[in-house]
Write a structure and sequence with these properties.
By secondary structure, this protein is of the alpha+beta class. The protein has seven helices and eleven strands. It folds into two domains: 111 residues, Aminopeptidase; 141 residues, 3-Layer(aba) Sandwich (Aminopeptidase), CATH 3.40.630.30.
Length: 273
């Protein structure tokens, strides 16, 4: 995937650093507050282990390594997941160091899984509204019953539905539903039927968008745009000035229409199956 030029290129390093900091909150905050889950946030590397045999919630990320210690630090992190016998993914983005980290991980035996576009939006340019979708209502998830609905919808993004996704949200619900939790979840109901989800991780003036999904039968109606805009508008009202996300190819058009611009790529590496 080629990376289009970002017009505010002078801000790319700062944007990439803020995106990484937000992702760390996204993958570790609930784990730190849930029994049986582990997070290791260190200057050189972050490791998140949900305790579940599912690489959707087990990560190595935000590498700030030097060449002298890269092999030992990376090997220790990979060995951790080998010892606990759980799958994981290692995400490498534009702020990770050293720049040859991806090639090093492949030399270690990890395989490149996929690459997506990293995109950012200055929230002072967020449109004042997006086209309404008749019959659509958007709700913040604040109760256990709505968290259960969200977990069911999210698990349904896999075929068959992934039971580990259900287990993750059920185990972390106590943390995620705390009033001061940085992760804000949204459900979209069309004529009373739950059809879409979104997550906004709000921390240190940055909002990261994750898990924006609409059930297949309801796509192409602008539902994802409404949920995305609502999460961004709420986070701007809470004081955020920057939004970041990683976009699958199918979502790039939606995000561009909201004003997002690319600032690099994020590549996922995994152990061979």
């Amino acid at each position: 995937m080629s990376t289009p030029t970002l017009s505010m290129s002078s801000r790319e390093p700062e944007t990439a650093e803020r995106a990484d900091a937000n992702f760390v909150v996204h993958v570790t905050w609930a784990l730190e507050r849930t029994e049986g889950m582990v997070s290791r946030v260190r200057d050189e590397l972050v490791l998140a282990d949900s305790g579940l045999p599912c690489d959707t919630f087990n990560f190595i990320c935000r590498a700030r390594l030097d060449r002298a210690t890269m092999r030992s630090v990376a090997s220790e992190a990979v060995s951790y997941f080998e010892r606990v016998e759980r799958p994981f993914s290692w995400w490498v983005g534009p702020a990770d160091r050293p720049k040859e980290l991806g090639g090093f991980l492949e030399a270690m035996g990890l395989e490149r899984a996929e690459t997506e576009l990293a995109m950012a939006l200055s929230l002072d340019t967020l449109p004042s509204s997006v086209p309404r979708v008749p019959g659509l209502e958007v709700h913040r998830v604040r109760t256990l019953d709505r968290m259960e609905v969200l977990s069911q919808l999210t698990a349904g993004n896999w075929t068959p539905p992934d039971p580990h996704v259900l287990r993750f949200y059920r185990r972390t619900a106590g943390a995620l539903l705390q009033p001061k939790a940085p992760q804000w979840y949204y459900l979209g109901y069309l004529d009373g039927e739950p059809v879409a989800t979104a997550e906004a991780t709000v921390a240190a003036g940055t909002v990261g968008l994750y898990n924006i999904a609409t059930r297949a039968a309801f796509r192409g109606r602008g539902i994802g745009s409404v949920l995305t805009w609502q999460a961004l508008a709420d986070s701007r009202a809470a004081g955020c000035d920057l939004a970041v996300l990683q976009a699958a190819a199918a979502g790039v058009g939606l995000y561009r229409r909201l004003g997002f611009l690319p600032f690099g790529e994020i590549t996922e590496y995994k152990p061979p199956v």
